[in-house]
Amino acid sequence: MAEPSRDPPSALSADFMSFSPGDTASRWLACADLQQEVYRHLAEYVPRVLCQGGGVAEQREELALQLMLLAPLEWFLLGGEPAAGLPLLRQGGGEALCGHVFKVGEPTYSCRECAADPTCVLCMQCFLASVHRHHRYRMTTSGGGGFCDCGDAEAWKTGPSCQNHTPADRNRETEEDPVSLLPPAVEERSYSIFSIILQYAVDLLTWEQEDQLPAGLEPQQRSDSYYCMLFNDEVHTYEQVIYTLQKAVSCSQKEAVSFATTVDRDGRKSVRFGDHQFCEQAKAVIVRSTSRQSKPLRVQVMHSALVAHQCFALKALSWLGQIIQYSDGLRRILCQVGLRPGPEGENSSLVDRLMLNDSKMWKGARNVYHQLLMNSLLMDRKFKKLFAIRFAKNYRRLQTDFMEDDHDRLVSVTALSVQLFTVPTVARMLMVEENLMMTIIRTFVDQLRHRDAQGRFQFDRYTAQQAFKFGRVQSLIGDLKYVLISPPPQWSQQLRTKFLDGFEAFLDLLRCMQGMDPVVRQVGQHIEMEPEWEAAFTLQMKLTHIITMMQEWCSTDEHVLIEAYKKCLSALSQCQSGLPDGEQPISLSLAGHTVDTFRYQVSQEKVSIHLPVCRLLAGLHVLLSRTEVASRLPEQLPLGDLSPHLLIELPLRCLVLCAQVHAGMWRRNGFSLINQIYYYHNVKCRVEMFDKDLAMLQVGASMMDPNHFLMIVLSRFELFHTFSATDLRRRFREANKDLAQQNTLIEEMLHLIIMVVGERYVPGVGQVEPLDEVRREILHQLCIRPMAHSELVKALPENGNKETGLERVIDSVASFRKPGVTGRGLYELRPEWSKHFDLYFHHYSRADQSKAEEAQRKLRRQNGEDTALPPPRPPPLCPPFASLVNLLQSDALLALEGAVLQWAGEPNGGGWTESMLQRVLHLVAMALLEEQQQLESSGGDEVVSFTFSSKITRPGEAPSTSGSVLALLESLQSAPHLEVHKDMITWILKMVGNIKTTRERTSGSSVSVSHGRRPEETVRDKDKAERKRKAEMARLRREKVMAQMSEMQKHFINENKELFQQSMEELEAAAEHSPPSSEPTCATQICVGPRRVGGAERHQLVTCILCQEEQEVRGHGRAMVLAAFIQRSTVLSKNRRRGILDPERLDPLFMHPDLSVGVHTASCGHIMHATCWRRYFEAVQQKEQRRQQRLRGHTSYDVENGEFLCPLCECLSNTVIPLLPHACSPDRSVEHPCLETWLKRTTQQAAALDSTHRKQSHGAAQQAEPAVPDGFGVGFVPRDVTSTLRNPFSSGVGEMINTFSMSAYKVGLKVNPNEQDPRVPVLSWSTCAYTMQSIERLLMDEKKPLFGSLPCRQDDCLSSLTRFSSACWTAAPIRTVQNHFIRLLSVLVLVPDSQLEDAPCFLDVDMFHLLVYSVLSYSSLHSLDQSGRSSVDSAHLHLLHLVTVAHLVQVLLTSTAGEPSMDQDGEESEEERLTCQLYGRLRDHLGRCLPDVSSGWRLWRCVRAGVLPFLRTAALFFHYMNSASPPADLLGTGPGQWEALCSYLGLPSNLLLLYQNHRTLLEPLIHRWCCHPGVGQVLHGGGVLVRFPRESNRLIDLPEDYSILINQASSFTCPRSGGDKSRAPTLCLVCGCMLCSQSYCCQTEVEGDDVGACTAHTFTCGAGIGLFLRVRESQVLFVAGKTKGCFYPPPYLDDYGETDPGLKRGNPLHLCSERYQKIERLWRQHGIAEVIGHAQEANQTLVAIDWQHL
Ligand SMILES: [Zn+2]
Ligand SMILES: [Zn+2]
Ligand SMILES: [Zn+2]
Ligand SMILES: [Zn+2]
Ligand SMILES: [Zn+2]
Ligand SMILES: [Zn+2]
Ligand SMILES: [Zn+2]
Questions:
Q1: Structure confidence by residue, pLDDT tens digits, 37-63
Q2: Are strands 226-231 and 268-274 parallel, antiparallel or unpaired?
Q3: For 455, left (φ over 0), alpha (ψ -120 to 50), or beta?
Q4: Closest ligand by atom to 1662 CA
Q5: Tens of pLDDT along 813-860?
Q6: Counting ligands in written order, which one lies closest to the CA of residue 1595?
Q7: Which ligand is nearest to the CA of 157?
Q8: How far is the CA of 160 from the centre of ligand 1 (A)?
Q9: Region of 191 on the Ramachandran plot (φ > 0 left; ψ -120 to 50 alpha; else beta)
Q10: How far is the CA of 654 from the centre of ligand 2 (A)?
Q11: Using CA atoms, how far apart are residues 984 and 990, in angstroms rounded to an integer?
C-alpha cells in the first residue's frame, strides 16, 4: 500500500531489550509530579509502539504494548511484581454479581415467574445453576450489550443468585466500604494513577483537532506521517464504500471489503498511511466520489501520533476495566475518580464528559467506554445510584444529541437507560429526586414540534429528517416504560407528588393526541391521496402499555387515583370545552320519553379515532368503581362541566364511525381509514381504544336514564327517525335505496347495546377477577376451533411484561392434544365450558363470529341438543354499574324490539335481516336471564324490581301499536320462514314460563309449583329423547355414506393404479412379489448362473401418462421411458474430503470403497412414450424461452440443464430411463464350464484382445502373439451377431439409451456431453450400482425385508435402471467396453502379457461396483465367442464367486483388528475353522501387518457381518437383471436370511467353501492381491482404511436443548474476518461444520460465481446438496446447486408442540427426534432436491431468494 516503512520492528526490538517496567514504575514513585512523568513516558513510547503504519505484526505490537505501556502502570499500582500482587487483591468469597456482558447472539434467559421484568436476564452458566431452570422461562438471543443480572436482588422476586454467585457470607451484604480492605499504599496510588489514566483517555477520545496533541504529549520530533481515516455512517452502503475505496486508495477488492467490514465494525479505519499530501489526496477522492448522491463519507487526515494515542487511550480503558475486576475496592476508587466533579463544576466529571461527547465519538471508542461503565459504575451498588443521578441530570442533553446522531441506539450511551431505570429502587429515587418521569415525557413532547392549529400532533407532512427523528424519539417511550414497569409497594408523599406531576405531563402529551388525524366522510369522489395514519397509530401502540401502567400505578393508591382522576377530568373538560358550541340543540321523543341533545352527524362532520384522554378517564373510572371511594365519597368525584352526555359523546362517535364503515358508507375514504378501524379493534391496540370506548359508554349509561341513553345512541347512529314511527320506516324504506346500509347500522347498534349491557368481564365493571377475563378470551377463541398455543397468545393482549396470563388459566378450560410428525399441538375447549359461549363476544370480528356460531351449532347438534345459542349467565355488575341492566327493560329498547319483531313477521319484507332478529332475540334472552338471576338471588325475600317478563306482556305503545313483545314472539314461533330461529324463540318462551312459575311460587302458592313443573319436565325429557334418536339416525346414515365412499375409492384406485402407486405401495408390493404357488420352491430359486429361473416370457404392458395409450415393452417396439432424476450424492460417503479432482481426467472405472461421491438415480415411476416425452419437453423449453424474454429470474427447475417436472406428479426430473424387456431365459443347451476352465479361457481371450487392440493402435510393434482360444474371433464381427446381439433395439429405444447414458455421464462427472468419451458406459453402470447400494442401506437400517418392501416407484426405477445398464454397452464402441472388462478383470486375475498400467490395489476397489461393472461389460467379450461352449450365465456366476472371495479377503484384512476379544465356548464350526485357515494364509502373506486373532468364531462373525451388505446388493442386482423372483424367506425379516440369500445367489451358505473348493486356483490369486504394494500401505495407515460393513451415515447428533446450539453458535467466530462474530451462524447437519452464512466476509467463488458459505460448503460436503440449521433463526435450510433452496420446519419444538422460526416467542425448545429422523430419512432417500422442487412450485416467492448467497 504505502511506501515501504523504515524498519520499525528492529528499533522496537532494541527497546525491548533495555526496557524495564519495574524501573519505570520506581521512577514514577519517586517523582514529584506524577502526571508529568507519566505523560512524558506516554509521549515517548505510545507513538513508537502503536500504529506504526501497516508494517508491524499485530503480535509484536501487542507484546510491546503490554511490556512498555501497561506493565509500568501495574508495577506502579501494586508497588511490585504484578503477577504476585494482583491475585492478593482478590478478596475472599465469590463475586456477588455476575455481570457477564453479552456477546451478540448469545442466549439469555428470563424467568417468567420470578423476573421483575423481561429485561432481567441470566447468562447460560448462571441460568443452569439457578432455580429458574425448573420454572417457566423464556429464552432469547442477545443483541449484544447488556449484562447478566445474576445476584441483583431487585431483578428477581425469588432466587436472585445462582449457585456460583451466592455471596460467601451474607453479612457482607451490609454496606461496608470495600476500599477500606485495600492496603493504604495501594489505595493512594490507585487514586493517583486512575485519575491520570482516565483523564488521559477522556482527553484523547474527546479531542477534536487533527494535527495537535494535548499538552504534555507532543513528541520531541514530529514526523510527517499521517493516516487517512475513514468513518462509518448509516447512509452509504457496503457496495458504495467498497467501490469508492478501490478508486481512492487503489486497493484490491478484497482489501476494500476488509476495510469496509472494519469501518462497519469499529466505526473507523485508516485506509492510507503516508505523508500529509498523500493522505489528503485520498481524502479528496473519497469525498468527491461520495458527495454526489448524498452527504459525503466522513474522512479525516490525522497525525499518526494522535492516532497512536487514541488507540492507546482505548487500550488503557480496557486495562482499567480488567484491573478493577480484581477488587471491589479498586472498582470503587475508579468510580470515585470518574464521578469526581472537575474544575468546571457541574457536568465536568470525567464520566460526564464522556457521556456528553458520546455522539461525537466513533463506534469503537463508544463500545470500549460503555463496557467500562458497565464493569465499574453499574457493578457497584453505591455508585450505580450516583451514576444514575448523573445520567438523569444529563438525560435531556443526551437524548437531544442522540436525535442528531446517525448511529444505532445500541452504540449510544442512551441505551444504558435499561441498566438504570429497570432497577425499581433507582427508578423511584430518580423520580423523586430528579423528577425523571416528567423529564422523559417533556423531552419526548419537545421533540415532536410539528402541531396543528389546535396544538395536536401532525404527522402528515413529515420530512425524511422528521420521520427519522420520530423513529428515534420512540426509544424515550421505552425508557418511560422501564421506569413504570413495577408499581411501588408503598408510596411516600414525595413520590405521590412527583408521580402526579409526571401524570400531568403525560396528560399534556395525550392532549396533543386527542382528536389527531380527524377524518371527514368523502362523498361524490374518492380521496385523492391516502392520508398518513401510521405514525399516529405507531404512537398509540407504543403508548398502550404506558397508559395501562399509569392506571396500574394509580390503582395502588387511593389518593393518587382520585387526584389523577380529577386531573384527567379537567384535561378532558379542556379538550371538550368547545364541543357543543355552535351545534344546534334538538329535542328527541320516543316511547313517551324526551331528551335534549344537539345535532351532530358522524357522516358529515369531522371525527377522530384518537381519544386517549377520554379513554384514560374511562380506565380510571372503572378503577374507582373497584374501590370503595366511589360509594363512600361520591362528592370526591366532581364531574364538573362534563355531563354523562358529554362523556359518551366522542367514544360514541368513534363507534358509530366503525359501524358506518362496516355498512359501507365510507368506501370513498380509501384504505387509510380501513386500516385505522382494523387497528382500533386489533389486539395490539384495543385495550386502550375500543375496550375503553365501550367502558365509557357503560360509565355514561350507568349514570343516565336508560331511555335517554338509547335515544342519543339512536340519534348518533342516524337511526332515530327509523324507529320514531314504524310507518315512517316503511315510507323511508320505499324512498331509500340504501336499505342494506341502514340494516347494517341497525345490526351494529343492537350489537352495541348487547355489549354495553353484557360485557362485564373487566374488574370494576363486573364482579370478576383479572384472570376471569383472560379465561373468557381463551374460551371464545377455542369456540371457533382448536388452536395452537402461539395462535392463542397472538389473540390475547400482552401486558408490559409480555405476559398474557394464558398459562395460568389454559388448563382449566382446555385440554392439550400433542402433535404428530407434522403439524402442531392444539388446545381443545373442554366440553363443560361451551355453555359459557357468547355469540356476541365483543372481541369477535364478524368472520370470527360466524365461524364460532357454525362450530357451536354443529357441536350442539352432535350432542343431540337444540341449536339455540342463548347468552351465558353473566357475572353480576359492580354497584356503580348496577343500573346498566335497566337498559334491557327500558321502554325505548322494548319499542325497538317490538318494531324489529313486527317487521320480522313479513317473510320477504326486506326491511329486516336475520342478524337483526337474532340480536333482538339475544337482548330479550339477556333480559330474561337477568330477571331469573335476580329472582334466584333475592330468595323471595325482597321485591325484584326487574320486571321484564311482565313488561313484555303489555301491548306496545306508539309507535309499535301492534301486540306485546311476547305476543309477537309467540306468533313468530311457528313462522316457517323463521325455522333457524325457532329453537331460540322456544328457549325464550320456556324461560318466560319458568320465570312466571318462580314468581308465582315466591308469591306464596308454593304448592302448585312442584306440581306445575312436572309436565314441563317430561316434555323436556321427551324432547331430549326424540333428539337423541334423530342424532343416532343421522350417525348411522353418515356411516353408511362413508362406507359407500370408501368402496368407491377402492374401485377408483384399482382403475387408476398408475396414479396411486405411492399410496398403494404396501398393498401392491406385497401382492406383486408374494411368490405365486405355481413357482418352484425356495430351494431351487436362484437369481444368477445357468440354473437361474424366471424372467423370459413375461409380457409387460404399460400406459403412457401423456397419451393414455397402452404399449408393450419390446426392444424393437416404440420406446417407453420413465421420468427420472439423477444427482451426485455423498450420502454413503466415508470420506468427504476427497472431492472430484479434475473431471476431465478422472477415471471412474474403479470405485473406492469409501464411496466418496456416487451418482444416484430416482424416479417417480411415471411412464411415457419417448416421443410423447420429447414433445412435452420441447414445449417446456419453449415456454421457458418465452418466459425468460418477459421476466428474469428462475423457475423451480433448470431447463437448460435438462430439468423438467413430471407431467403427472410434478416431481423434479432431469432425464428419462428407457424401459427394456426382461432378460431371456438361460440357454440350457450349452455346457457350463467350471471356474477353472472358464477363468483360463477368459484370461486367454482377454490377453488376445488386449494384444490385438494394442496392435491396432500402435501399429505393428510385433511381439509374441498370445494364443487365441479356438472359437474366439478377435476383431471378428459376424453378421448375425451384428444384427441380433449388437443391435437388439429399434432406433427409438437406442436413442433413449443414449439419452440416459449421456445424462448419467454429464451429471456424474459434471462435464459437457461427449458421446465419444470411453467413460460413458461406466457412469451408467455406476449409477446402477450406487443406487442399489443406497437402497440396500435404507432397507437394512429400517429393518425391512430385502424384497417386497420397496415402494413401486423405487422398484420400477431399479428394475428399469438395471435392465438399461445391462444393455447400455451396445451403445458404446465395443472396443471401449472390452478394454474396461480387461482392466476390471486384471484387478482379480493376472491377464497374461497385458501391458496395462498397474491395476489398482484390491483394497482400493469397492467389490460390488467391480462385480456390477464386470458382469455388465462381460457381454462385450462374450459376443466374440463363437465356440458355443460357454454361456453368459455361467460367466456371471463365476464372476460372482471370484469377487465374493476377493471381498472375503478384503473384509478379513480390514475389519478384524480392534474387535474386543471374546471367546466362544464349545465346538468350532466348519465355517470358523475354514475362516481361521484362510486368515492364517493371509498372515503368511502379510506377516505382521495383521493382528493375531486366534478365535475362529470372532473371525467368522466379522466376515459374515462384513460380507452381508455385499451379498444383499448382489441379490438385488441379479434379481432385477434377470427378473428372478425371490424366495419367500427374503420377503420377510425372519430367521434363515443368510442361508436364503446364499442359496438365491447360488453360493454355498458356508462361504468359505468357495475358497476351500478351489484352493489351488485361488491361492496364487490371493497371493498376488496381498503382494500389491498398496495393501501394506493401506494397512499401515497410509491410505483410507474402510471397514466392513460400512457404517451407515447419519445426520449429526443434535443436542436435546436448543440453547446449547445457540450458545455454540454465539462463540463461533467468522473464520475469515479475524475473530468477528458471525451474523448468521449455520450448522451443516451432514458433517457438523459451523459456517458463517449470508455474509460478505465468507463469500467464495465456485465455478465462476460468488457464493455464500453454505452453497460453497455443499460443493465439498454434499456434492451440491446441503442440509443446514440456521441457528439464530431456528430454521432448517435445504440447498441444491446454486439457485435452489427452501426452508424446512426445524426438528425443535416447544412444550406446546410448535416450532419457533426466528426464535420470536422464546419458549424453550427441545429436539423432536421423530422429526429429525424424518429429515434424515429425506436425506438418505435422496429426496432433498425433490422437496425443494415441490416447495418452490408451491411458493413462488422462494424462487426469488438468492439462495447462493446464503
Ligand atoms: Zn451470569
Ligand atoms: Zn450467577
Ligand atoms: Zn424463576
Ligand atoms: Zn404416449
Ligand atoms: Zn411422476
Ligand atoms: Zn457439511
Ligand atoms: Zn464470515
A1: 999 999 988 888 887 665 556 777 888
A2: antiparallel
A3: left
A4: 6
A5: 999 999 888 888 999 999 999 999 999 999 999 999 999 999 999 999
A6: 6
A7: 3
A8: 11
A9: alpha
A10: 52
A11: 10
